[in-house]
Amino acid sequence: MCGRPFSIRQLILTICLLLSTTINSAQDPEFTQFYANPIYLNPAFAGTNICPRVNLNWRNQWPGISGTFVTYSASFDQHSESLHGGLGLLFTTDQAANSLKTTRVSGMYSYQLKVSRKFSVRMGLEATFFQKTLDWNKLTFGDMIDPRRGFVSSDG
Q: What residues contact residue 52 under an 8 Å CB cut-off, 6+ apart?
């Protein structure tokens, strides 16, 4: 044997690291003026202003095509001296192609750690309720189309 054997702790840590490196991909809505919606980007931005902040965003992507992507976002965040950071609330809804709707409601907390008089570190936490709904009645499947006459049946 070369070297010493793995301990149980090292084996569990290695397995956890391997399992956590799976590739996940999703499509989040993208705003063209992303800097106008700071807590959507990073929950650590909650409470960065001393005064309360309200953001309202709307995006209609590809409006000339039927079934576009329409996204709404509303957020509120407030600095709290007693919490040494800030609190935020974010509501986002995304309508894709008139059939898929995604709704998110997020609560955020950021903590500011003052390292020195001129330097601080801000960390953020976010908890989200996420719901996706699909309207099956607005979908078109291949067996609903007759090649000569067009749509034949609206039932699936």
A: 76, 77, 78
Taking residue 42's Cβ as centre, other Cβ atoms within 10 Å add up to 14
DSSP assigned state of 118: S
Alpha-helical runs (H) found in the chain: 8-19, 38-41
pLDDT digits (tens, 9 = 90+) for 13-27: 888 777 766 665 566
Q: Tell me how far CA of residue 39 lies from CA of 26, 46, 50, 58, 122, in angstroms.
A: 19, 6, 15, 15, 13
Three-class DSSP category at 28? coil
DSSP classification of residue 43: G
Q: Hey, what are 61's tokens?
A: 């992507």
User: 91, 55 in Cβ contact below 8 A?
Assistant: no
* CA 56/CA 99 separation, integer angstroms: 24
Residue 1: pLDDT above 50? no
Confidence (pTM): 0.72
Q: How confident is the model at residue 99 (pLDDT cuts 50, 70, 90)?
A: confident
- Scan for tokens 């974010």, then name that residue: 90
DSSP state of 27: -
